[in-house]
Amino acid sequence: MDHMTPFEVGEAHGRRGTRRSFVSGFIGLVAVPAALVGALALGLRAGEARWPLPAWLPVSVSTLLVRDEAGSPPDAPVLYYRDPDKALYALAPAKTPDGRDYRPVRVGEDVDFEPKPAEPAGGGQTGMAQAGGKKVLYYRNPMGLPDTSPVAKKDSMGMDYIPVYEGEAEDGNTVRISPGKIQRTGVRSEAVERRVVSRPVRVPGTVTLDERRVTVVATRSDAFVDHVENVTTGDRVRKDQPLVQVYSPEINAAAAQLIANPGFDGSRRRLQNLNVPAEAIAEMERTRRVPMAITWSSPRDGVVLERGAVEGMKASAGETLFRIGDISVMWVLADVPEHELGSVRIGQAATVRVRSLPGRAFTGKIGLIYPQVAKETRTTRVRIELPNPDGVLLPDMYADVEIGTGSAKPVVAVPDDAVIDTGARQVVLVDKGEGRFEPRAVQVGARGNGYTEIREGVQAGEQVVTSANFLIDAESNLKAALQGMAAAPAAGEEKAP
């Protein structure tokens, strides 16, 4: 026996090729509102006349409009056949596994894809009726109102109360949803997987020099500048490249003592304390002559950041003649908001883009989180170290910094839409198959890339609801409330109307 879904039934009717079959199948899926039918029927009776119906009105609709209060006429066409207990359908007469006939659904009958309760034996006066081998505990209001009944009945709008079977009440955390309702509400599920969850923190920054790679060229005694090489601010210099020649009376006096007493180590040590280059000291010992001026060279490869030396000037001890900066490695100082500090760690990767070089990105790592929060901006400065081999990064450039937070190891994660956050707790709905859903409290962790880390509550491989989960959660809360009220109706205290 072939079972069909409601939409397969509609398509099968449409394939029959006749106008009557198509309209019948459409009416079977979309019921004409009861208020419209009642108004038309009342108009026909009040006029005490049989008004002719329009010729264009399909036969199935005409039959529906002239039916009496008992339902469809006995000779109305059969749309399909329905299992008396489940949402299973067939186009031809069929039987259930236990030998019962499928119920015919005719044109004009209200169509509901929810499972229908079987009529209780003896007129339906007991709340413990048997339905397809399952015991009906009670019936609940179809509109979600806090109203139950021990017997099958209809509400004020003529809708059947929904049965709650014995098996459905065994697990108080599990909610059962019929296949028809799942299809109509658009419930979708997704498997729980292990994945890397990261959320980038985007903050502004500024390119600066590495403080450890800046050197000042100066004398340790008063001196006069004899000559300055053709080097200006901004020029690139190499290590040991000559920069300036200076004359210092104190250095010359120490050099004379070294030449007069070659074996006296104190004279060499004095020159070294005056920061005289080792090459200059070796030249004095070799030539046995006191030079008129000493040449100072660049201590490293880099860029001339400052030139203070001018030919003929007198330089006091410690005065800056040149300031050299190595720009092969640069710093980026970024201001991270206080509420983001918990997700930033030393060693995390960071991507830097400068506004003067669109389309180019530089990758570095966080080297330091400064131990202070600015009172005015509520931010903390973070230092990122960037390689700058081609020297395109310059001091004081503005930068856009993106810090990749989160662990690089895969963690159990679900889509953000799967988490229902009430503020006090977080819940996901686990899809257990066959229309069964279990609300489960979880402990969440990091969020990023559209996913939320689940530290406790679900495991990889389980299915969680990602769409229409609020509707199922409301159904779960309603079920919990109704189960608390079910004791009295189950005892038969409420009588059927």
Account of the protein in words:
The chain has 497 residues and is of the alpha+beta class. Helix 6 runs antiparallel to helix 7. The chain is 20% helix and 32% strand. It is rod-shaped and about 135 Å long. It has 4 domains: 6-106, no CATH class; 175-196 and 409-485, conserved putative lor/sdh protein from methanococcus maripaludis s2 fold, CATH 2.40.420; 201-209 and 327-404, Efflux pump adaptor protein, beta barrel domain (Elongation Factor Tu (Ef-tu), domain 3, Beta Barrel); 219-320, RNA polymerase II/Efflux pump adaptor protein, barrel-sandwich hybrid domain (OB fold (Dihydrolipoamide Acetyltransferase, E2P)), CATH 2.40.50.
Structure described in brief:
The chain has helices at residues 6-14, 19-29, 34-46, 59-65, 179-185, 249-260, 265-273, 278-287, 469-485, 487-490, and strands at residues 78-82, 89-90, 103-106, 130-131, 134-140, 148-149, 162-165, 175-176, 188-191, 193-195, 200-209, 214-217, 223-228, 236-237, 242-247, 294-297, 302-307, 314-315, 322-325, 329-337, 349-354, 362-373, 379-387, 398-404, 411-415, 420-421, 426-433, 436-448, 451-456, 463-467.
